[in-house]
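Tutorial, part two.
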Amino acid sequence: MSDLSDLSNLSDLSTCLPVYLPTCLPAYLSTCLPAYLFTCLPVYLFTCLSPASMKILSISDKIVPFLYSSQIREKFSDVEMVLACGDLPYYYIEYIFNALCVPTFFVRGNHDNLEEFSKAGVKRAPGGAVDLHRKVIYHQGLLLAGIEGSVRYRQGPFQHSQGEMWEYVLRMTPALMLNRLRHGRYLDIFISHAPPFGVHDRPDRAHRGIKAFCWLLRVFKPAYHFHGHIHVYRTFTQTVTRYEQTTVINTYGHRVTEIEVG
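Running the prediction step on this input gives:
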């Protein structure tokens, strides 16, 4: 091992370095650095610094024939998540989950059944899908939460008073506050069957929006709120509305939305 206290070998550097710096280094910088700046660096900035995107298929309220067929694999091969917002048969949601093989989340609507009977037996939920009712979860960089049902207007399951909806929202508050501490934000996506009060809803009792949802959107500021319940029969019906900092989407039938993640 050479003695580091012996500096005699530095004599070579003292002669070569003054020659290398004025000649070779400028040539290297003039050829390699511009190539890096104009090719590698933009790619790095685009891939590493730009937010990632995700395509979400949201569904509600009616069976769309081409979704319930082999066509779904061709048309939606780039979808990375499915959100089902109620009033859909369990077998339909399960078929979409099995066809696309992507994470699937759902809430029930006021017309959903407690049990669904078929030759395969009794279903109480779509196989493979995650029930989001009164839950707050973190999945693939996204913070999600959901609440099922509509305002109570008759006897039947999955209907709740405005007071009960307030209770469901308030019970989720501790988990949303914890999200803020852990992730720097409360919520990214909120899904429900019913819309917020005054946004996409209707004046009749059955289709009235939920007042607690408005408070949730104002306070916890999710980027998106997907809902169903409000059927769309005219092309000019407004189905996307900006409420405070949230994009509220009526996903009647089906809709594909590309969102930023991260």
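The first helix runs from residue 10 to 49. In part three we will examine how such features are distributed along the chain.
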